[in-house]
Each structure stands twice: as structure tokens, then as C-alpha cells.
Amino acid sequence: MATLTSNLSLSSQCTIPKDYPAHGCVVEEIEGLIRVHKDGYVERAQVVPCVSASTMSAELNVTSGDMVIDSVTNTWARLYVPICKQKVPLLVYFHGGGFCVGSAAWSCYHDFLARLSAKVGCVIMSVNYRLAPENPLPAPYDDGIKAIMWVLHNQHNKGSASTSTEWWSAKCNLSSVFLGGDSAGANIAYNVATRLAACDGAALRPLNLKGLILIQPFFGGEERTGSEAQSWGSALNLAASDTYWRLALPCGANRDHPWCNPLGKGCLKLDQLNLLRFRTLVCISEMDILKDRNMEFCDALRRAGKRVEYGMFKGVGHAFQILSKSQLSKTRTKEMMALLKSFIIMAQ
């Protein structure tokens, strides 16, 4: 999802009892969202309801269903398929949540991606990946690669009696594939893309990655930015951001680790990454603590000769398109969907 913080007040039912002596003291906590105990026991509050794939407005003309990618790791995906006659692009999407919370079944994601599928006219595969701290980075990146390989496997086994994916795979134009996500999901999309860029193109055929869609990408760093010092009152604050990174990064790593800070010292330079064939769209919120990092990321891509464009959404904060019900947020969400549609059309 977006990276949630406790000031959301999404539900009065999200309070977690303070007394869990059986698991020792609490060592990390984002109040109302996640609590990690000394013995490693993790509590997550149900701040957003999960809904089934069949929960869909008939007006959208979109069908949806869930598919298992890896039963061992419990990685699965929710597919959204617009009802149409022609093949359409495929967007592989990763939800946010600071790598620690969130689900492809959350109602806010289900609603947003169903509407996005209808608006853009593309199949969307929303990947439900493993969460930290039980599964720290790079587990979500591994799950992202596995999702791509699963798509390829189904393509190579078309017509097999053992597959039940025709309802969605038959609609996919695999020569026009996009990776995307919001917040931590955008971080995952970027890191999956850098891995795919290092692959032999022949190994991915017929899949052709056309572009990256990064919505409020969750990056960090030890040195603070100007926007991180602001108190915007949106869905992500600095304390929560730091906690997410402590829970998600490998033991001993700080926020200048390349998975957190792709522009940090010791990172592979962007001009050395084989991303030139990927167009990149970055969606930035004006009232987001990540605004400056997102802008710096775009500037660095541009200086490295990459094809990047961005949209700045005025007057809204982190995850507005998922969490906020204000009229301004609804207007900005429509603008975001229009921008994504234009990007996908131009990148094909």
C-alpha cells in the first residue's frame, strides 16, 4: 500500500493490546499497525479489510481472480482483466506498506487497481509478496522475479491441460509489459527491473519490458532531505519510515544500503545499469516526505541518460490515491490514472 502510519485512524478496531508477556517486550512498533516483540513474534493490526476477487462493480467491465505463484512461500497474485476483444498490455504491480504490512487483497488496492485496469485498458497482476521482518529484503525482490518467471512459464505452457490461466493470459500482450507499484511496491518494481535488465533478453522472450511506473517510490538515506523534515500530516511520517527500514533491511545495514538508497555511495552508478530501454514514470506527491528523494531520483536518472518523466500531484500526500477520500484526492487520482494511461500508450 502505500507506507501506512498510525495517524491514518482508518479503524477504531486497529488497537493492539499492550500486554503480551509471553513474547517479551516490544522492540519495534508503529502504533496501530505493527508490533515486533523481543522473541520475534509479530503482530499486525487489520486496519484495512481484505476483500475477495469477486468483489467487483459490474460497471467496470473487469473480471478478477486469484492465482497461486508459489505455494511454498505463499506468493500469489490477484489478476484484473478488462473485458475486451483485443490483447492488451500487462502491468505487474506491487502494493506498498513499508515492506511490512499490506496485501493484494486489501480493499483499497482492489478498488484502485480494478478502476485502473478499466481506465487504462490493461491486465494487472497484483503480486502478494512476503513481508518483513519475517522475510527481510531481498525476499520481496525474489518474489517479484518469481512472478515474472511464472508469467513466462504459463506462456510457454499455453494449451496445457494442467494450466487454468487462459482467462487472463489469453488477453495479455507480452510484448508490452510494465512493472509498477506504489511506495515500497515501487521500490520492489525498480529493483526487480534492475535484475531483469541484467538478464539475457532471449531468456525473457516473448516478454518485453516496456516501462516502469513508480508511484511515490519508497527510498531513503542516512542524510535527511528537506521534505523529510516537514510535518505534512499525510500517510507517512519520518519515524514510521525509519522503523520500516530497520525491519526490512538486512541485519546490520543502514539506510545507505543500495536497496534503500539507490543514489548512495557504493551503489552501482545509474549510467551503468542497463535501464536505457525502459521508460520510467515517477509519480510524486507535493505533500509527501519522499518528495525530495523522488525528485533527486528523477534528476539522477536524467543525468545518466535514462528516459524518465514525472508527474507532480499538488496538494496531496503520500498514498492519497489509496487512502484518502477527499474530493481533491479523488481529482488527483483521476489525473494520475490519465497520466498512467498516456505513459503506457506512448511506451508501447
Would you write up a description of this structure?
- This protein has 348 residues and is α/β, with parallel strands linked by helices.
- It has one domain: Alpha/Beta hydrolase fold, catalytic domain (Rossmann fold).
- Helices cover 30% and strands 23% of the residues.
- The protein has nine helices and eleven strands.
- The protein has helices spanning 107-120, 139-156, 166-169, 184-197, 201-204, 238-248, 291-303, 320-323, 327-347, and strands spanning 26-30, 34-37, 42-44, 62-70, 75-82, 88-94, 123-128, 172-182, 209-215, 279-287, 308-317.
- An eight-stranded mixed beta sheet has the order 4-5-7-6-8-9-10-11, sandwiched between helices. Strands 1-2-3 form a three-stranded antiparallel beta sheet, covered by helices on one side.
- A hairpin with a 3-residue loop joins strand 1 and strand 2 (34-37).
- Helix 2 (139-156) crosses helix 4.
- It is globular, with a radius of gyration of 19 Å.
- Mean pLDDT is 90; it is low at 1-16.
Short note summarizing the structure:
The chain is an alpha/beta fold.
Describe the structure using short key phrases.
single chain, eight-stranded mixed β-sheet, about 350 residues, Rossmann fold, globular, alpha/beta
Using the 3D structure, state the CATH architecture.
3-Layer(aba) Sandwich
CATH level 1 class label: Alpha Beta
Radius of gyration: 19 Å
Please trace the helix and strand order, writing H or E for each element.
EEEEEEHEHHEHHEHEHEHH
Side-by-side strand order of the widest sheet: 4-5-7-6-8-9-10-11
Q: What is the CATH fold-level name?
A: Rossmann fold
Structural class determined from secondary elements: alpha/beta
Strand content: 15-25%
In helices, the fraction of residues equals 25-40%
Low-confidence stretches: 1-16
- Give the number of domains: 1
The number of strands is 11
> What kind of sheet is the major sheet?
8 strands, mixed
